[in-house]
Amino acid sequence: MVRDSRPGAEPGPNLQSVLDALDDEDCRTIIEHLEEPLTAGEVSEECEIPMSTTYRKLDLLSEAQLLAEGVEVRQDGHHATRYRTDFNEVIVALAEDRSLDVEIERPAEDAADRLASMWGEVRRGADQ
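Request: output the structure for the sequence above.
Response:
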C-alpha cells in the first residue's frame, strides 16, 4: 500500500513501481541531481545518461509519482517540460497485517505548483 501524506491526495502508485524506481541506480542519480527543475536534456547532461535512457528513467520515476512535471512556457512556442522531485521522504514500514506499507511525504504545494500540475494534466489529456 502506498499512502500520500497530502490532505485529499489521490491514491498513490503501486508499491512495486516505487520500489523499482528507488532500486534503479540511474533513477537515484537523477533524483540526486534534481536540486532544481530540469528538462530531460539537462537531466541527461547533468547525470551523464544517454537521452533514450533518461526518458525511460523519467517515465519510471513519474509512474512512481516521485517526480512532478511542469511546463515552461516559452515565447517562441517551443514549451519545455521540466522535472522536479515530488517527495521529501519515502518511508517503508511493516504494517500490522505484515504487509509492506509505503508512505510518501510530499512538500507543500504552492499556487505555482498547482498551476503546473493542472497544465501537465491538460497536456496529458490532449495527448490521448
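DSSP finds five helices and five strands in the chain.
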